[in-house]
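Hey, resending since the last one bounced:
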Amino acid sequence: MSEASPVVPYQPQDVMFLWWLADPLAPRRVGEIGLADGNRKVWLRYDAAWLADGFALSEDVPLQGGMFLPRDKDTVAGAVDDARPDRWGERVIRLLDRPARLSLLEYLYFAGDERFGALGVSLVKDAYRPCPSSPTPGFASLTEMNEVVRHVLANEAVPERQKRLLRPGVTLGGARPKSLMEMDGATWVVKFSEGESLDTPLIEHAAMRLAGLCGIQVAETRALPVASGHAVAVRRFDRTPEGRLHAITANVALKAAGEELGYPELAQLLRRIGNPAHLAAQQQELFRRMVFNILIDNTDDHEKNHALLRTAGGHCQLSPAYDVVPSAQGLGYQQMRVGQAGAESSLDNALSEARLFGLAAPRAKEIVKEICAIVSGWRAHFSGCGVRAVDLGELAQYLDGDRLRRQREAFGR
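The structure tokens again:
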């Protein structure tokens, strides 16, 4: 038996190659990406073949020749910025991969093959060869996966055989500890607790279910018991049986369009890049999400927690809602602009620019009243999902506090 070929250590390089992976049988090279401005930015240049019959990855990198350089430091050109790992992914790369250099380009490469959306990064020009990785683990690995997450959170060494359980390429969902898992023939993002007193993963599952009762399209979730409480599994919506879907966050989409980071701005952007036949439903969907986030005290609803998927016809549509969970802080301000009073977490503010969501005032108030009625039963719903009494009591301080309760009651009369 011949010996296995030795693994060649990664050598830093300043140019890599961006690939389009929507069709799993026919990956296509999009172009080159490389470092600039003291290694603090990553540029994009489309290939001639992609210019001939491809599409603009986002509005700030139009389908034309030349180099696209991001305006801000520590960012990547256009939609490619969404292909890099989130904060948890960066932490895993630093701890497990330990590359000789850690520029944005390394983070893009070491994010691997299972990143958000349909883009991939290769060191090789003529073939798609991503950073080597292991097969996605199955449900039987959940307990061990939870243990590995604890090691990473404690900055402890992870045994070589367990490194396969962490997939830093997941760029969806922010800073929370996570990995990937295969269940029922689909891939799921599994998010774990950071050791906080609240069973946040179970609360997220309950909140997502409650959002679904409010007429919001949500990603499918499952609560998975682990030693420290629960993990929450979120079914990936950027994957289909046919392949991968191009996805960009509202952060990229709004900045590319030169718009303020706000719900009304995103609703208006849908008028231009969405399918006209579905515009009314899409704008109403976004309005529902904004109102629900206010009422559930989800004040971490920043622009990276909203995404757009590219459809076969070239239009964009809202992805299912994800990362919806009460912040339990009572801040009184959302992360995105809500209405005329800026980011203020109030229903009056949400209604102040309802017309930008394509809604007449009477219909907007009907929607708010409907969501208020459902959210008023949050405690029974969360209890039915298994949320502990002690956690219900802590959440009630905010969800049933004067600020949110009085707003619900005002629309319940």
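Confidence is low (pLDDT under 50) at residues 1-6.

Sorry for the duplicate.
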